[in-house]
Structures are given as C-alpha cells and as structure tokens.
From TrEMBL:
The keyword Repeat does not apply. Belongs to the complex I 51 kDa subunit family. Keywords: 4Fe-4S, Iron, Iron-sulfur, Metal-binding. Pfam families: 2Fe-2S_thioredx, Complex1_51K, NADH_4Fe-4S, SLBB. This is NAD(P)H-dependent oxidoreductase subunit E. SUPFAM superfamilies: Nqo1 FMN-binding domain-like (SSF142019), Nqo1 middle domain-like (SSF142984), Nqo1C-terminal domain-like (SSF140490), Thioredoxin-like (SSF52833). InterPro entries: NADH-UbQ_OxRdtase_51kDa_CS (IPR001949), Nuo51_FMN-bd (IPR011538), Nuo51_FMN-bd_sf (IPR037225), NuoE_dom (IPR042128), NuoE_N (IPR041921), Nuop51_4Fe4S-bd (IPR019575), Nuop51_4Fe4S-bd_sf (IPR037207), Soluble_ligand-bd (IPR019554). Residues 563-608 form the NADH-ubiquinone oxidoreductase 51kDa subunit iron-sulphur binding domain. Residues 186-240 are annotated as: Disordered. It comes from the Bacteria.
Amino acid sequence: MDLHFLDAPPTDTERAAVDAVLGPPESGWDGGERQASDLRFAHGGHAARGRRDLLLPALHAVNDRVGWISREALDYICRRLTLPPAEAYGVASFYAMFAMERRPRRVVHVCTDIACAAAGSDRLCAAMTERAGAAGSADPDAGLVWHESPCLGLCERAPAALTIEAGDPPAYSVAAPAEAADLLDAPADTGTRDGDGAAPAAPASANGHRRPRTTTFSPAPLPGPAPEPDAGTAVPQSGDPGLILLRRVGVVDPESLDDYRSHGGYAALREALRLGPSGVIREVSDSGLVGRGGAAFPTGRKWEATARRPETPRYIVCNADESEPGTFKDRVLMEGDPFSVIEAMTIAGYANGAATGYLYIRGEYPRALSRLENAIARARDRGLLGTDILGSGFDFDIEIRRGAGAYICGEETAIFNSIEGRRGEPRSKPPFPVERGLFGRPTAINNVETLVNVLPIVLMGGPAYAGIGTGRSTGPKLFCVSGSVRRPGVYEVPFGATLRELLTLAGGAGPAPLRAVLLGGAAGGFVRADELDIPLTFEGAREAGATLGSGVVLVLDDTVDLAAILVRIAAFFRDESCGQCVPCRVGTVRQEEALQRLSLGTGPRRTDLALLREVGAAMRDASICGLGQTAWNAVESAIDRLGVFGPEETTLKEVR
C-alpha cells in the first residue's frame, strides 16, 4: 500500500477524534491549516515526536469513533506526531481490535477460547455463521460483522461475547452466556466512513429462548435488558468476613470513594506515608509476596532494585492486560474494587520514588476501564492523586493506556513498547525493567492482584502477612475456577489449600465424570482426576510437575473433546505470537499443524508425537519470551499425563 497520503485529508469526524486526544494542531506542519509563515520555517517537531506514547490512544480514538482506521486518518495522526506512516501502520496493524479496512460500525467478538470452547462456543459460532455469514466476512454497509475472539475474561459465564458499536461515545455490551439471537437482533447501520447517521442498536430479543446475562455500561451502553450485578456475581464468596483481597467486591459501590473509605479504603496509604518509602519496601520484603502473574518474582526485591537506581524519573506500571485464557481475577478486582488498585499503585509509586504510574488495561475490558477512570477522577478530586497527596509532599498521578487485542502485551517489556507507541514486541533481557524499563528509565511493573496484596501487607505488617499460607508461598491467592463446576467464579484461599478443597468450595464438578483440570491456563498444564490432592502452592505445583501460572483452574469433564482443546490452545499461540523470533514464529505453526493431523487421524501418529517434542523443546529453549517458552506446556502435559493421543513407541530420529 502507498503510505504517503500527503494530499488526502481526513474527514471532520476523524480529525475531531484525533484532536480530542492530541489537542488542536499548532501549525500546518502538524496537520493544521497552512499559513504563510509555515513556508519559511518549521518548529515543534521534536516536541511532537516526544508525544509518540499518544499514538495508541489516537488510534483508539479513530477506531472508537468511526469503527475503522482509514489511510487518511492514519496519515493525519502521523502528521500530528511527526511519525513515518510506515511505522504507524506497523503499530496499527499489530493489534487485533483495530481495523485497517472499512467495516460495519457494529462488531461482535465471540469468544472461542478454551473455557468457552468447553461450554459450547462452537454451537454459538455455527448459529452466527448461519445468520450473519462467516466470521470476519461482511459487506461494509451491513449491520454488523462478527469475529472469533480469544479469551474475553468472562470464563465463569461462558460462552461469552462482547459487542462494540462505534460512535461518539462508542457503545458496549457484554453477553454471557451468549446466544446468537441476542447478538444479532439490531438494525443495520449506515456504514459511512465518517460515522454519521448510524442507527442505534435494538434491545435484545425476547422470543422465549434463554436470555443471556447481558450487561451494559458507560460511556454509552447499547440498549438492552437492565444490568445485573456484575463483579459480585463472579465471587461466590462475596460477603465472607474471612476474605482479604475480595472482601469489598460485591459489598461496596465500586463507583463511590466514600463507600470505599468507609470499608477501610486509603488506610493503607496513610500507613505507608507514616512508614516511609524504605519502611514500605521492608514490609513487602518481609511478607514474602511474589508476583501473581505466573513468574513469582519477589516483589520486595523488585521494588528495592528500582528504588535504588540513581536515574530519574522512575515509573510504576500496573499490568492489567489479563489475557491468559481462563483468567478473570484481575477483571473482578478492577470492576468490583477499582479504588484498591489506584491506592495500591499510589503506594507503589511512593515506595519506588515514582511520580507517574501507567495502568495498561486490555481493550476487551470496557467496564473495568470505565470504573478505573472514575476511580482516578474521584481520587484526584479528593487530593489522593496529584500534587502533595494527603499533605505529605508526595506527588503521584496515573495515566491509563488501553490495549487493543494482543496477548503478547501481557509480557512486561512488550507493555513498555506498546505504551511508547511501538509494536508490542518483547525486548531482549538484560537490561531488566528495574534498570531500563518504560522510556528507558527504572520501572517497577506488577499485575493487579500483586499490587492489591500490598494493601493488607502495609496494614497488618509483613511478618503477619507471611503467616498466611506456607513458608515459601505466603498470603492469600485468587483462583479463577471455570468449566464443569457448579459454582464457577473467583475464589480466594490461602496458599496450601489443595485442588480438591478448592473444587469442593466451588460446589464440585458437574454431573459428568471429571476428566482433567487445566492449571495455569493455555501456558499451564493438565492434571488428572486422581491428582486433586496437589497443594496449591508454587513449590507443591512444581513438585507435581504442574504450575499455578495466573491462577486458572479449568475443570473438564469427559464430555469435552480434549484433542480439540489442544488444537485451540495451539491456534491461540500461533495467532498471538508476535513473530519476532524464529523458534516461536515457526514452532507455533508446526505445533498446530501436528495437532490438527493427530486430532483428525490424518498423519503418522508416532512421527507427529515425536515432532511435537522436538518443536516444543526448541520453543522452550530458544524463544525470546514466555509465550514461546510455554506454548508447549499444556500439550506436553496432555500427552504425558492424560495420554490423549495414545502411547509413543518411537522417536522422530528413529522414524527418519
């Protein structure tokens, strides 16, 4: 494509969307009207390039307003930021939620990942195909287009769907469990490029079939049934006085700062200011807190290394790009207790000597985004963010950056690239984020669950917190239980509880016999039905040859086609690989091909099993980041522990 559209103006709607993010242009050189003075000199280019981190918000603004990003709109963004069009196109085309070709304003994302696949998303997709055509195929002037989507983080109510309708502001609707009739019952829109004249969506149908739990929310909800309780419905333990991390979810009004403070909110920040930065880090270190995203790196050590760096400014990044299939705990925290996330980030900023924090949230979480934006605004209004917080002389503020559908951006250095306005590709390490992270400065990055754990640590003290759980796995842990259980949802248990105890808490398995449990998500591994006494600790899972990962507990009964689940996992990693390194880029494709042949019985079984082992070992040993390094984990455990494709009788070398 021609990437130089110097004479192609954007529409008024596209221009307004970009200017709402970047402000009005200052001269003809950055997209404004050409004046006589512009022909004599140019200025401001360095300042414009210094705002490259606004590229992702600008792309979102156009995509949200119009429904797709035209070449003219992209060129206008490039003028405003003085970026080469080829670079901006490379960024925009990297993200699955952005469209670079004209499409209907209404887009339906139907989850087909492992939890939804086990719950019958194939039937939902078949119904959508019958009534709306194949996924991704639609006339731009049609009423809507639908896509198969990776995990939407609604696994406890699978199968799930997210509907987004472009406009000012855009409209969102979540349906879970979803049915095709409810997703399609809407009038066609005009499909015009500038988005003018689009008709509103119609309410969900009421033709007698089972109505899904459809929730609508700001900034502009699609018409539909009244919203049901949201985050609280995902926490079956809601109201339990023994909870620590989930004690406010489903209890407080998530949009009320006063309600949050009446339930102990901001007491931890006041105590942190009393302890001082080094005192906070000492308590976090004494607590034994480790990262809850899967890597389990000691949080105190990370904070201490960041705080000791001489370079400034330093940054705090909250990794809210919760994209691991089967994971939804961070969504529940952000939707049900958003002020706790903001308070925890503020404490992290204080301890690490950072004045700015970035909260990177996945684009498929519009409700959580709305709740967090409200929490930040309310905190600023009350002097809990901004300058001189609580009269302490400490300045700290938070900016939100919204992802756009890229699993790889859950990797810590890929987040940095995404925030900086680059393709979300991982960086080689070292240097590590505590040395050179966001914008090349020392950065402490933690996920939502890890940060929220800091609040009880500060209040009860590190040693008291370390008394919860086991010696090497301290504190409470959130587990995302979904699949064939009677009460799916997020459960909080102390480290050391067994898998059997967790499933009992969730009401036990469904009526069909239990076949296997997937621990840790697509990057985790399977355990058998006779291995439920595994202790849910990092060391216990490791000794059992499994992993806790991000806390996924997907229960599968014997009605589920495990071979199809493995193919879906392989397809997920193939789709989500950034393609930067050969072992992952090629290996994920070869893995999917071999699994397809094995599931269909069309190839030499022994050869394909041996090939899978060689490819898996190459990905694990040579991939740049955790995506390629873990892409073989679940497949390996299914072959070795579950015997999905039968016994192996030879190796690839012997076959050759």
